[in-house]
Amino acid sequence: MxxxxxxxxxxxxxxxxxxxxxxxxxLVAHPSVxxxxxxxxxxxxxxxxxxxxxxxxxxxxxxxxxxSDDEGYVGICDIPGEREEQVATIAHVDVVPAGxxxxxxxxxxxxxxxxxxxxxxxxxxGPAVLGLYAGAYLLRHGVTPRYTVRALLGCxxxxxxxxxxxxxxxxxxxxxxxxxxxxxxxxNAEKGCFxxxxxxxxxxxxxxxxxxxxxxTNAIPGQSELVLAVDAxxxxxPRAHAxxxxxxxxxxxxxxxxxxxxxxxxxxxxxxLNAVGLLVGYLTEATEADPELLAPEEREFLGxxxxxxxxTAGTAAGIAAESEHFSPLTVNAGxxxxxxxxxxxxxxxVRFPDTTSGEAIEAALAPLASAHGASMEVTRVKPPFxxxxxxxxxQTLLSTYNEVTGADARPFSMxxxxxxxxxxxxxxxxxxxxxxxxPAWGGAMHGPNEVANEAQLREAxxxxxxxxxxxxxxxx
Length: 476
Known about the structure:
Elements: H1 3-28, H2 47-63, E1 66-69, E2 74-79, E3 83-92, E4 110-112, E5 115-117, H3 125-140, E6 147-154, H4 162-170, E7 176-179, E8 182-183, E9 187-190, E10 192-199, E11 208-211, E12 219-220, E13 223-228, E14 245-249, E15 255-260, E16 264-265, H5 275-289, H6 296-309, E17 330-338, E18 344-352, H7 358-371, E19 375-382, E20 385-386, H8 392-405, E21 412-414, E22 426-428, E23 431-432, E24 451-453, H9 454-471
Parallel strand pairs: 3-6, 3-7, 7-22, 8-23, 9-21
Antiparallel strand pairs: 1-2, 2-6, 4-5, 5-24, 9-20, 10-18, 10-19, 11-13, 12-16, 13-15, 14-15, 17-18
Helix pairs in contact: 1-2, 1-3, 1-9, 2-3, 3-9, 5-6, 8-9
């Protein structure tokens, strides 16, 4: 990196950093959980998401972008270039629900010991602001880019990515796109996604009154509460994970069983502990001692839950797979509920490599469900995605990251699904740093007390600015 360019970028970041933090805080303040019911004109994902989009577009306009939006599906922020072809970024302003377990207000960003805290600071409101300020460096310095720079702001990344589907129906593909919604250095391959819902047989005289799990299917539940229609005195003390499971009595004939796990993102199960799985294990213990504790249909479904929660590799469920180019399959059994008709409902989120398929996973799980008197509905299937690591644009991003950080990193694959998989030539590019140890009081994306390291965000902004400048020199 030329010394004068590096000095100029560092000076720019010093100058704007307080504004960056203020803008992240302004976005975090919007509880922008996508909701498609009811649909309103210009706000297809609800008023809260629309408010967050307007906030982000306001930031972009203030920085000098030409702004518009695709009927409320996607925000569009342009820096016109010499050519119509686009170098684009895309981030999202929607978030997963806050969920339980926060130490403070999830919608009020705070700073603590060098970390930002709040829902969306790392997924993906903080990175969205970084992307806008990276392009604004060109505007601040009067640089007319060779390719048009387009910053896209999505509104439905956490639910179904229908926003970009709508956008691409009426807009051209960018020549190259990256999304700041993963780890550095460069993720050029994403696993396939498989989602399904399991439903128990109709329950007669059920004992499970209610059961809570994750707030979203792609979150690993950090807490779970089970209410049983039995006296608490009938329940045995937990043998496994006794320090994480508590039993309380309430009104006569009711018992509350609570589990404290370690939440996180469904695609990154390492280091997490599924709280629903803890209660599945406890119920298994309890029914071994007292077979009449649950209704027969509930016991059957518990057998299925035991297999789904047994491991995150899908071994017990018979769907484990791995690949040379992708890391092994992961499965998360996240949301759980008792429906109004008394049936139990469990969802799963599977991230799979290119050695298996949605059809193969369904073929393995459907008979497993049937054997336990349950049914299964497939809710989504997305194939694995790959952009060649040899692409000049990918190599530009990689060399920029390595130069700034002094690393010798290589592209990688992941289980998370980002916007990149919807575009013809795209990757995810930071801003998380692999191996970062979170503070004891902090949490990962999708969990309580979501944090982002402020120093790492500053470095990411520097990387994004330099990468944006260098991409202008690449033949795309």
